[in-house]
Design a protein that fits this description.
By secondary structure, this protein is an alpha+beta fold. The protein has 2 domains: 239 residues, P-loop containing nucleotide triphosphate hydrolases (Rossmann fold); 132 residues, OB fold (Dihydrolipoamide Acetyltransferase, E2P). The chain contains 10 helices and 21 strands. Strand 12 and strand 13 form a beta hairpin. The structure holds adenosine-5'-triphosphate. It holds the Pfam family ABC_tran. One of its GO terms (biological process) is carbohydrate transport. GO terms for molecular function: ABC-type transporter activity; ATP binding; ATP hydrolysis activity. It comes from Billgrantia endophytica.
C-alpha cells in the first residue's frame, strides 16, 4: 500500500562540506514527488538517505507511521531503481526480477542450491514467486524476455526489467535515481509517459531524482527544487513555473531560460532603462530583476505593453515553435522569445526587431533574489504611461 514519506531536519556533511542542510519534506501517500536540481545539489544523497544506503548526521525519516531512520535498507520497505539499472549480468531477466522475492520468501537454507531443495514449503514459495514475476512482467510487457540475460537487452528493456524488479516487491515507496538518463532522447520521452502511467496504475509513492527540469515538469505531482543542500521551492509544476519563489527557481525551470532584465527603483517605481513599468508598494527596494518568459515576448504590441528594441540574431525551428534569439540594444544581452512558425516567418535576421511584453505577465525579484509582487491594478496600470524601453528617443 502507498505510504507517506516524512523527512525532518535531514543534515549530511562530508568532511567540512554540508551536502544537505536541515531538509524537511512531507511526501503524501501515492504522490509523485521529484527532487530536481543542478549536479551536486544533494538530491541523490537525500534519496540514498531515504533508502538507508547512507546515514544522515541529523534528522529523522518516517515511512507511513514507522520511524525508519536507523533501519537497514531491506527493512524500510522501499525499492530503489538506479540510473545504471544494477541488474545481475549472470542471471536471466526472470531471475533478476525474482531476486527480491527469493530473499524475502525463501529461508537462507531454502536458497542453497542442492540442500535447499529438501526444505519444506520451498516448492510452494517458488511457485508463488514465479506467478508474481510473470504478473509483473506482463504488466510491463516483458514476458518474452524472461529467459534472456541483461546483455541481450536494449537500454529501454533493461530499464523495464529494473522497474519490474522494484515493482515485484510491492514496496511502500519507489525511489528512482535518474532512471532514464541512460536512454536515448526519443526513448526517454516515451519512458516518461510509461512511468507516469505506471505511477497512476500502481497508485504508489514515487520519489524521483533528476537534473532534467523537463522530466520534473512533465511527470511530477510536486517538485522539490534543490540547490546547495536546501529546498528552494516545493510546489506543483504549475506553481514553480508561474509563481517561482526566487530568481534561481525562475532561471532553473523553463527552456529556453527566462529573460532577466535589470531595473532600478525610484520612489517605488520600477524603471527599465529610465522607463516606468510597475509601481511597488515597498519603498525599500533599490533595484529589481524583471524576468520575462520567452513565450511572454511577442512581436505584436498590445495596449499597456513594454517594448524592447533588439536585433534579430538567430531563429531555431522546433516544429510547433520557433525560438528567436535577439540582441537587446544598449544592453548587449541576448533575449529569447518563443514564437509560432507564422510569426517567425516575418523575422529578418540581423535586422532591428521590437519585442513586447505585458508587465503584469512578468516576474519581479528583489536584489536578494526573492519574489516580489507589484500590484497590477487599474490605477497602477494608468500610472505607467510611457513604455518604450531601449528605444532611441
Ligand atoms: N561519499 C561521498 N563522499 C564525499 N562527498 C560526497 C559523497 N557523496 C556525495 N558527495 C558530495 O556531495 C555533494 C552532493 O552529491 P549528490 O550525489 O547528492 O548530488 P546530486 O545533486 O545527486 O548530483 P548529480 O546530479 O551529479 O548526481 C557533491 O558535492 C558530492 O561530491
Amino acid at each position: 500500500m502507498a505510504q507517506s514519506v516524512k523527512l525532518s531536519g535531514i543534515t549530511k556533511t562530508y568532511a567540512a562540506h554540508t551536502v544537505l542542510n536541515d531538509v524537511s519534506l512531507d511526501i503524501q501517500p501515492g504522490e509523485f514527488l521529484t527532487l530536481v536540481g543542478a549536479s551536486g545539489c544533494g538530491k541523490s544523497t537525500l534519496l540514498r538517505i531515504i533508502a538507508g544506503l547512507e546515514e544522515a548526521d541529523r534528522g529523522t525519516i518516517s515511512i507511513g507511521e514507522r520511524d525508519v531512520s536507523h533501519l537497514d535498507p531491506q527493512k524500510r520497505d522501499v525499492a530503489m531503481v538506479f540510473q545504471s539499472y544494477a541488474l545481475y549480468p549472470h542471471m536471466t531477466v526472470g531471475e533478476n526480477i525474482a531476486t527480491p522475492l527469493r530473499m524475502s520468501r525463501l529461508s537462507t537454507c531454502a536458497r542453497w542450491p542442492l540442500v535447499g531443495m529438501a526444505t519444506p514449503g520451498r516448492r510452494e514459495a517458488l511457485a508463488s514467486i514465479g506467478k508474481d514475476v510473470r504478473a509483473v512482467a506482463t504488466q510491463l510487457q516483458i514476458e518474452a524476455l524472461l529467459g534472456r540475460k541483461p546483455a541481450q537487452l536494449s537500454g529501454g528493456q533493461r530499464q523495464r526489467v529494473a522497474l519490474a524488479r522494484a515493482m515485484v516487491r510491492r514496496p511502500a515507496a519507489f525511489l528512482m535515481d535518474e532512471p532514464l538518463s541512460n536512454l536515448d532522447a526519443k526513448l526517454r520521452v516515451h519512458m516518461r509517459t510509461e512511468l507516469t502511467e505506471l505511477h497512476r496504475q500502481l497508485g504508489a509513492t514515487f520519489i524521483y531524482v533528476t537534473h532534467d527540469q523537463v522530466e520534473a515538469m512533465t511527470m511530477s505531482d510536486r517538485i522539490a527544487l534543490m540547490a546547495d543542500g536546501n529546498i528552494l521551492q516545493l510546489g506543483t509544476p504549475d506553481e514553480l513555473y508561474h509563481r517561482p519563489a526566487s530568481l534561481r527557481v525562475a532561471q532553473f525551470i523553463g527552456s529556453p531560460t527566462i529573460n532577466c532584465l535589470e531595473a532600478i527603483v525610484t520612489n517605488g517605481v520600477v524603471q527599465l532603462i529610465g522607463v516606468p513599468v510597475a509601481n511597488l508598494h515597498e519603498a525599500e527596494h533599490r533595484s529589481v530583476t524583471v524576468a520575462v518568459r520567452p513565450e511572454a515576448l511577442r512581436l505584436h504590441a498590445e495596449p499597456g505593453d513594454v517594448t524592447l528594441q533588439a536585433t534579430a540574431h538567430r531563429l531555431e525551428h522546433h516544429g510547433a515553435d520557433c525560438f528567436l534569439l535577439a540582441m537587446q540594444h544598449d544592453q548587449e544581452r541576448m533575449l529569447h522569445a518563443r514564437l509560432s512558425p507564422a510569426e517567425a516567418s516575418g523575422v529578418a535576421i540581423d535586422q532591428p526587431i521590437r519585442l513586447h511584453f505585458r508587465p503584469a505577465g512578468a516576474h519581479f525579484f528583489a536584489a536578494d533574489g526573492l519574489r516580489i509582487e507589484p500590484p497590477f491594478d487599474e490605477s497602477a496600470a494608468q500610472a505607467i504611461t510611457q513604455r518604450q524601453v531601449g528605444m532611441s528617443a
